[in-house]
Amino acid sequence: MSSPTRTSRTAQKGQGQWALGYREPLNPNERMKKDSDGLDVRQRILDIYRHTGFDGIDPGDLRGRMRWMGLYTQRAQGIPGGKTAVLEPEELEDSYFMLRIRIDGGQLSADQLRVVAGISTEFGRGVADVTDRQNVQLHWIRIEDVPEIWERLEAVGLSTTEACGDTPRVILGCPLAGVLDDEVLDATPAVAEVVEKYLGDREFSNLPRKFKSSISGCAHHCTNHEINDVAFVGVRNADGEAGYDLWVGGGLSTNPRFAERLGVFVRPDQVSDVWAGVCAVFRDYGYRRSRTHARIKFLMADWGPEKFRQVLQDEYLHEALPDGPAPDRPATDQRDHVGVMRQVDGTNALGFALHTGRIGGELLAQVADIAERFGQGRIRTTADQKLVVLDVPDDQVEDAVAALAEHDLLVRPSVFRRQTMACTGIEFCKLAIVETKGRAKELTAELERRLPDFDTPLTINVNGCPNSCARFQTADIGFKGMVVGGEEGFQVHLGGHLGFESSIGRKLRGHKVAATETADYVERVLRGYLEHRTEGETFAAYAGRADEEWLR
Question: Which residues does the UniProt record annotate as the domain Nitrite/sulphite reductase 4Fe-4S (predicted)?
Answer without folding.
Answer: 164-318, 418-546
